Amino acid sequence: MADTVIYAMYDDDEVLKAGAKKLVSKGVKVKDVFSPFPIHGIDPIIGVKETRLGIMAFLYGLTGLMLATIGMNFFMIQDWPMNIGGKPSFSYLENFLSFVPITFEFTVLCAAHGMAITYLLRNKTLPGMPAENPDPRTTDDRFVIELRLSNNANFDASQLESMLKETGIVEIDQKEIK
Amino acid sequence: MHKEAAIREPLILGHKTYHQITEDVCKPIEDKAPRTWYVLFAIAAIIGLYGVGCILYLLGTGIGTWGLNKTVGWAWDITNFVWWVGIGHAGTLISAVLLLFRQKWRMAINRSAEAMTIFAVFMAGLFPLIHMGRIWVAYWVLPLPNQFGSLWVNFNSPLLWDVFAISTYLSVSLVFWYIGLIPDFATLRDRIKKPIPKKMYSMLSFGWSGKAKQWNRFELVSLVLAGLATPLVFSVHSIVSFDFATSVIPGWHTTIFPPYFVAGAVFSGFAMVQTLLLVMRKAMKLEAYIHTKHVEYMNIVIMVTGSIVGVAYLTELFVSWYSGVEYEAYAFINRATGPYWWAYWSMMTCNVVSPQLMWFKKLRRSLLFTFIISIVVNIGMWFERFVIIVTSVHRDYLPSSWSMFYPTHIDIGVFVGTIGLFFVFFLLFARFFPVLALNEIKSILRSSGESYKDGTATSPAYSLADQGLANATKPIETKKEVKEDKTAETSVKEESKDTSGLFDKIGTATADEKDDLKKINGLGPVMETKLNEIGVFTYAQIAKMGAAEYAMLDELTGTMPGRAEKDDWAGQAKELMNNNDNK
After folding, report:
1. Which residue, A7, B148, B177, B391, has fewest beta-carbon neighbours within 10 Å?
2. Residues A72 and A101 in one domain
3. Each residue's pLDDT expressed in tens, for chain A with a length of 178 residues
4. Residue A45 resides in a domain
C-alpha cells in the first residue's frame, strides 16, 4: 500500500514529548517514536498500551510450578518411591517439603525464559532480523517521531510538516513507501 | 521523570551529553586495544590454558590426582566451587535487588558486575562437573528415563537441588544480561563503520530499533526479571549452604548457614566487583561514571555484609558451646587451635576485622585502600570455605582416621587455571562489549548528571557541536530552515520588546528584595545570577510567569530551553512564597 512516512527528528526527549503532546492534541496520529533510551511518559501520549508480558510471565511461572509438581510426584511418589529410614514415601503431601527448592527453581526458570522468549518474539528482535530505526543516530542521541499519511486522513503532508516544525524539530525527512 | 535531591552527589561527573556517553563507552571498542590489554590477555590465556591442561590430565587419570584422601573427600574442589558461586552473587544482586530498590548508582556498574557473575558461575559450575570424575556421564544428574528400571535422580538431595539452582541461576542471569545488552549492541551496530564488526553487532543486536513499544516491553521485562532474580539470588546460595547444613557432620550441621552463606556471597561478590572495576574505570577512562561515590556505596554494602558474616561466625562459635554437643564443640575448638589454626585466623582477620575499617569515611572513599581491602576480602572468603570444608572433615569421629589435606599441583593448577579463564572471559567482555549500560545511564543523565544538578550546564543534554560528524550523512537544509526561523523570531522579539515586555506582567523588583532563587528545583546558581542580571529577584516575580514569559526567559538567558516550564518554576515559587509567609 502506497503511503507517505514523515520522520521528524528531535535532539531532546523532553522536547519530543511536548511536541508529541501538541500534535496529538491537534488530532494527529503518531505512528511510532524511536529513541536511544526509554522516554518515560511517552506511552500514554502516543497511545501505546501497557504490555501484557507480566501476565504471560505469571502464566509461564504457573506452568513451571505445575510441571515441577507433576514431575516430582511421578518420579518420587508414583514411579519409584524411595525408602528413606522407613519414612512415608507414598504421599506427596508428606514429602512435599524437600521438593520446595526445585519447585521454586523450576517456576523461576519457566517464568523467566518463557517471558524472555515471548519478549523477543513480540518485539521481532531475533538474530538476523533487520533493524527498523530510520536513522542510525536514534540509538545514540536523537529521537524520532514517525507519522504516516494513511493514519492521518484529515491532513496532507505539508500540513503535517508545518505542524511538526512548530515543535522544535532539528531535521525532517519524508519517504514514499510502496 | 525521576527526581533526585540536590544534596545527593551526582552520579555522572562533569558535563556529559547523550552523545558523549555513547562516545565514551564505544570508543574503547572501536579503537585498537592498548598494548596492556594484549599483555594481560596473554598472561590470563596462558594461565587458563595451563588450567585446562590440568583438567584434561585429571579427567584422563582420575580424581586421585587431587590431594583428597579417605577422610578429606571434599577439599579445594568444593572450596573453589563455593568461592566462585559466592563471587557470582554480586552481579545479579546489583542489577536485580538494587533495581527493585531504585538505586540509580547501580546503572554504572551493573553491566560489568553481571558479566563477572556469569563468568564466575561458569567457573563454579566447572568444579562439580570435574568432581564427578566421569564428566562424560554428567547428564546423569538430569531426571532422564534410563535402562535401570526407572531409576530417577534423588529429588530429596541438596546436591540435586544445587544442579537445578545453579543452572537456573546461570541461565536466568545470562538472559537478564543479554536483554539489557541488546539496545546497546544496536548503538554499536549503528556507529561502527567496518563491515565485519558491523555485521557481528547487527547479529548480536537482534534488529533492535528502539520503538516506543519495544522500550515499553523492555522496561517491564527488566522489572519482572529483577523480581524473579531477587529470590533466585537468595535461593541459590541458600541451596549451596544446604549441601553442608543438611548433613550430620559437626561444623556443617548448622541452621544458620543459609543467611550466613548469602551474606558471605554478597560480601565476596562486591569485593570482586571492586577489584575489577577499580582497574577497569581507570584503564577505560570511565572515571566520570564510576567514581568515588559508587565505590563508597559498594564499600558500605561490603561493610554491612561483612558485619553479618562476623556476627554469624561468633554465633556459630557460641552455639557450638551452648548446644552441649561435644563433637560440635570440638569441631570449633579444632578450627581455632588445631593444625589449621592459621586458616581460621586468616579468615577471621580478613573477613571480620577488615570490613570494619569501612566505618571511617576517609578509608571507604580511598580508592587504593578499597582495592587492597577487596583483595584481602577475596582471600578471606576463600579461606572461609576452606575452613568450613576441610577443618570440619579432617578430624572425624574416629581418631585413627584423622588426616590432613595437602593440595597437589593439579589442585593448584585447576584453581589458578579457573582464575586465568575468568580473566580471559572478562578481558574479552571489556574489549568487545559495551561495559556500561548505555541506555540506562542516558536515562539518568538529566536527574543525576553533575552539570544538570548544579545548573552549570551550558547546553542541553544534546550538543549540536558534538554531532558534526553524524550530520554530514544527512540532508541538513530542513534543519537549517528551522534554525533560521527560530533566530529570526528571537531577533524580532528582542528588538521590539527587549526585557521590558517581561516585566509588564511579572512586575519589577530590586536587589534588596532578593529571594534565594536556588531553592527552586531546576534553578541553579548560574541561572540565578543570570536572572538577577535581567532584573528577576523575587519568588513573586517568578510565580507570575506563564508560558510566554518562560519563552522570553529562555531567549534572554540562553540556557536550558524548556527547563522552566518542565519543572514548573512558577508553581514552585508560589509554594516558597507561602512558606515565607508562614514563618
Report:
1. B148
2. yes
3. 568 888 888 888 888 888 888 888 888 888 888 888 888 888 888 888 888 898 999 999 999 999 999 999 998 888 888 888 888 888 888 888 889 999 999 999 999 999 999 999 998 888 888 888 888 888 888 888 888 888 877 888 788 888 888 787 888 888 877 6
4. no
The pTM score is: 0.80
Pick from A65, A106, A119, A174 the residue to mutate for testing the B interface (most B CBs within 10 Å).
A119
Complex ipTM value: 0.91
Q: Give the one of B1, B482, B566 whose C-beta lies nearest to A165's C-beta.
A: B482
Q: State the nearest Cα–Cα gap between A2 and chain B, in angstroms.
A: 22
Compute the Cα dihedral for A133, A136, A138, A139 and give only its sign. positive
A110 and A62, same structural domain?
yes
Residue of A nearest to B161 (CA): A102
Q: Within this chain, do residues A114 and A156 fall inside the same structural domain, yes or no? A: no
Indicate the angle between helix axes B257-283 and B212-245, nearest 10 degrees. 130
What is the residue range of A91's domain? Answer: 53-122
**pLDDT per residue as tens digits for the range B5-20:** 777 777 888 778 888 8
CATH of the domain at A164: 3.30.70.260
Cell of B70: 579417605
Identity of residue B327: Y
Beta strand A143-148 pairing with A3-10: antiparallel
CA distance B497 to A65: 71
Domain count of the fold of chain A? 2
Q: Which of B212, B231, B462 comes nearest A11 by C-beta?
A: B462
Q: Do B217 and A104 touch (CB under 8 A)?
A: no
Which chain A residue lies closest to B2 (C-alpha atoms)?
A40
Question: Are B26 and A139 contacting, i.e. CB atoms less than 8 angstroms apart?
Answer: no
Contact A136 B191 (CB under 8 A): yes
